[in-house]
Amino acid sequence: MRALGTLLAAVGLIAAVPPSPTPAPRLAHTDGRYALMVDGAPYLVLGAQVNNSSAWPAMLPKVWPAIEQVHANTVLVPIAWSQIEPTEGHFDFSFLDTLVAQAREHHVRLSLLWFGTWKNNGPSYAPDWVKLDDKRFPRVVTKEGEERGSLSPVFPETLKADSTAFAQLMRHLRQIDGARHTVILVQVENETGVYSAVRDHSPAAETLFAGQVPAELASARHVSGTWREAFGRDADEVFEAWYTARFVDQVAEAGKAEYALPMYANAALRDPFGPQDPLTFSSGGPTHDVLDVWKAAAPAIDLIGPDIYQPQSRNYEKVLDLYHRPDNATYVAETGNAAAYGRYVFTTLGHQGIGFSPFGLDFSGYSNFPLGAPKLDADALRPFAMDYELLGPMSRLLASLSYAGKVWGVSEPDAEHSQDLKLGAWSATVSYGQLQFGMDPPKGNPTPSGGALIAELAPNEYLVTGYLARVSFHPTDPAQKHTLITRVEEGRYEDGKWVFEREWNGDQTDYGLNFTSTPQVLHVYLGTW
Ligand code: DGJ
User: Which of 173, 195, 345, 399 could be 42's S-S partner, Cβ–Cβ 3.0 to 4.6 Å?
Assistant: First the structure.
């Protein structure tokens, strides 16, 4: 049929047949592993989030050069409620239209960030008719009776207004992009929760709090009774988390009813290790301690991604461990843009990550130092550009292998200088801070910046890459002594195909496989004799 259409079009008898639409993006799930399916195949988000105030047509010329320099394949851009519905019931999608058109010209995909009722606790991105009307859209009230800036999650009018706007956004998006899928993900709200209050104590919230725990939550957490009876000291935070998640879920549902793209929530983190006073973190948001609550409350949210602004390797690993769960895909929704974070793409992939998105990558002149780099210029982009230059050409392959459970990745720790990976019959040691020649002990890079990635292509055959690291293979079974690297190919991926360039041997393999800051990809064949 298609061939006939093309033929008829070629001879000028009918207008050209439009390409058949690709399948809509979706999050696939098998055996506790995840893949973001884009155009019908696993996709790895090599993301870049723009600054909060860069989502205007006039700013896009300062966005695209940074995106090109960093080689991102996906750009995360806010869509502000105030921008699309400045007057109630009147919608303006001109920025979205411009953004989608320009993203296509720049051959990147988009993740839209819905800045609605919550943009880090406050409604700063809600229209004036919302944020100035606290009678119609009430705010969180503390235990002491003080109002906070954050809107309360328990009021149906707020939910109705937000979900109506979001549904209109998704409807418009389906109309302009439903066949092309330039937009592949949507974040619903931004870092929900409230600071300086644990939960809403407004009269409406107090009535709910005095009642029974909702049945879905009671059964998910095997509890019963009132909130206090069921959750004791944690009841206030769990209550806020439940109602915030229910709110976000219903906004997502309304959007998905118009256009069912994968939707996620991002998390402002609490201390990943210890107890923390809920007055000091974003209470009600999807912090690690309430992920079960969010999962029960928000089935329309496909995943919850941590925003990791903790550069210490111990913290980074812990946060990834906490959010990498059988019921949650690993996705670093935001991370710092300081150099220290560049290496963490490797451990993110090692946690079966479907994506990694440093924040604030544009040339608008803004820097969120000390969270990120002091200045956003080509030097600041370099660690991330190195990552994406290396991983971009093989990102589809890596996403497929990851979905099959065949990818391992590590990043250089702050204090230790070597790490062991069990790959099955083979193990690998990744070490840092050695000369390329000789067996000097690993002393770490001058600043921790190394990382390595290993993917099993076939039995005894591995794709190996990384930066500023040495990778050595050995058999997992110590009884198996006679093993060797039979062949090491260096090459590159072009259009998904391996292009051989040379073999490594002699000095290049005698002391392990040494990766520098030059992007290099190896195919390693292992054997026994
Ligand atoms: C986390 C938020 O989600 C971002 O929008 C931004 O405000 C950063 N914090 C800080 O730059």
Answer: 399
Predicted TM-score (pTM) of this structure: 0.95
Per-residue confidence (pLDDT) for residue 185, from 0 to 100: 98
Burial of 382 (0-12, 13-18, 19+ CB in 10 A): middle
Distance from the CA of 191 to the center of ligand 1, in angstroms? 8
Ligand 1 centre distance from Cα of residue 190 (Å): 9
> Which of 359, 335, 495 is closest to 411 using CA atoms?
335
CA distance 82 to 128: 7
Binding site membership of 120 for ligand 1 (Cβ less than 6 Å): yes
Residue type, 518: T
74-80 and 407-411: which strand pairing? unpaired
Cβ(24)–Cβ(261) under 8 Å?
yes
How much is the pLDDT for 12? 39
Instruction: Give the 3-state DSSP-derived string for 66-78, with helices as H, strands as E and coil as C.
Output: HHHHHCCCEEEEE
| CA of residue 368 to ligand 1 center, whole Å | 9
Structure tokens at 428: 């690998």
How is residue 395 written in tokens?
A: 């990102």
CB 220 within 8 A of CB 292: yes
